[in-house]
Specification:
- The structure is a single chain.
- With about 230 residues, the protein is α+β, with helices and mostly antiparallel strands.
- It is built from six helices and six strands.
- The chain has a six-stranded mixed β-sheet.
- The N terminus is likely disordered.
């Protein structure tokens, strides 16, 4: 009797094992993508506030507080730091100090045919495109030219919109090779976006386009808005 009971118990155990194996085989395996396999466990997001300068890979130099305490002062500093005679070495760290980390300087440029001299007259059929530069890109392009010829740029008129911590300055500029030149060799619009972090103003973007015969400056941008 005991042998029969032991045999029945063993058969029941075998059946249970077979059933468990069958269920396991029918259950789909959970798939892990390669990106999930290599992705580290995410850490909780920190909420520590950061200034625009500390969000950049390379922190900008410290600014003179008098350059960045008001919109008027930071715009004036922007024009002042790039202006001067050929023999004057520009203070590029002062320029950098005006900008937020990751800021961009974006000229709007005509797309000329390959081989066309950069000073050739425009035909009017050119397409235009933005050329996105970092502040260091701008310095690398501008420094050689400014060391070989005078460059003075001043603000001729301005329109400002401001809300909360952001501001947009639509600044009409005039460029000269000498400060006393009667006529500028170039005029245009600097569209300047700025932010105030509660302590100072930062330039986030300058997006500009020069005036041409086909795109003259409208009269309304030749005088400051009230």
């Amino acid at each position: 009797m005991r042998c029969r009971f032991a045999l029945a118990l063993a058969l029941s155990f075998v059946a249970l094992c077979a059933r468990a194996h069958q269920v396991e085989a029918q259950t789909p395996a959970q798939h892990t993508s390669p990106s999930q396999a290599t992705q580290p466990t995410q850490k909780p997001m920190t909420t520590t506030p950061q200034t625009p300068a500390t969000t950049a890979a390379t922190q900008m130099p410290a600014a003179n507080p008098a350059d960045v305490d008001t919109l008027d002062h930071i715009v004036a500093a922007l024009y002042d730091v790039i202006s001067g005679p050929a023999e004057k070495k520009r203070d590029w760290d002062r320029l950098r100090s005006l900008f937020a980390g990751g800021a961009r300087m974006i000229p709007t440029v005509p797309l000329r045919a390959t081989g066309t001299p950069p000073d050739a007259p425009l035909t009017g059929s050119e397409a235009y495109a933005p050329r996105v530069l970092s502040v260091d890109d701008y310095v690398a392009r501008a420094a050689p030219r400014m060391s070989s010829e005078g460059f003075f740029e001043r603000e001729a008129a301005r329109r400002t919109e401001q809300f909360g911590h952001i501001a947009h300055v639509f600044s009409t500029y005039e460029s000269r090779h000498a400060s006393d030149d009667a006529k500028p060799f170039q005029r245009g619009i600097n569209s300047i976006q700025l932010m105030n972090d509660g302590k100072r103003w930062w330039i986030v973007t300058i997006f500009w386009e020069g005036e041409t015969d086909r795109t003259p400056l409208p009269e309304k941008y030749l005088k400051s808005a009230p």
